[in-house]
Amino acid sequence: MIDKNSLVLGFDLDNVLRTLSLPTIHICEIIKDYSPFEVDSLSATRPLLNPMDLALPEDQLYVLTRCYTDVDIRRKQEWLNHYYGNRIEMFTVPKCTENWGTEYYEQVGKAKYDIIKELESDMYFDDDPGLIRVMRRLAKKDNFHCKFIKYGCWIEQYTPKEDINKNGN
User: Fold this and answer.
1) What's the confidence (pLDDT) of residue 60?
2) What residues are paired with 93 via a beta bridge?
3) Backbone phi, then psi, for 13, in 5-degree steps?
C-alpha cells in the first residue's frame, strides 16, 4: 500500500540513471550494425543520477525505457537490480518508430506519457528535450499535474536533416 504522502518518481534509464553513448548509437545506425553498441553498453554503462538521493524510503520509484528485444529488457533489468536491488520498478516502451525526429518524439512521448499518467506520477526525469516537450504539452491538455524535468546532457532535441527538410522545421 502506498502512503498518501509519498511521491511517485519516474526516470528515463539511458543518460539519466546510467551513461549511454549516443555517438555509438548514431554510428551503429549508419553502418546498420548494433554489435558495437551492445559491447559498449555492456562494458561502459555506469550510474549517473542516483534516484535514492531524491526519494524517501516510502516513495515509489520507477524507470521507463525503450526496449526492442527480450534480451534488451533482461539486460536493463539486470543492470537496475545490480545497482538498486528491487527498489526501482521497470516499465518498457516498445520500439514504436524509428529513432529520432518528429514522429519519434510524438509516438514515444505519448507512449511514455500514458504510462506516467497511469502511475499517477508526481515527477518524471528524461534527458531528451523533444520528449519532455511532448509530455508537458499532453499533461497541460489533460490538466495532469506531473512535473516533467529535463535532466542530462542534451541541450536541444536531435532532429535529422531529412526530418527537417520533410517537415520544414
Assistant:
1) 96
2) 66
3) -85, -60
SS3 of residue 27 by DSSP:
helix
CB atoms within 10 A of CB 17: 27
Nearest to 132 by CA among 157, 115, 114: 157
d(CA 15, CA 125): 10
In-domain check, residue 131:
yes
Which residues of the chain fall short of a pLDDT of 70?
Answer: 1-3, 21-29, 34-44, 95-100, 154-169
Give the per-residue pLDDT at 168.
Answer: 45
For the record, the C-alpha cell of 54 comes out as 531524491
Of 113, 95, 107, nearest in space to 29 by CA: 95
pLDDT tens digit string along 25-58?
Answer: 566 667 777 666 565 666 667 888 999 999 999 9
The reply to whether 85 falls in a domain is yes
Specify the DSSP element, H or E, that contains 76: helix 70-84
Range of the domain at 110: 11-167
Q: Flag whether 147 is in a domain.
A: yes
Reading the block at residue 107, the C-alpha cell is 509516438
User: How far apart (Å, rounded) are the C-alpha atoms in residues 14 and 19?
Assistant: 6
* CATH of residue 81: 3.40.50
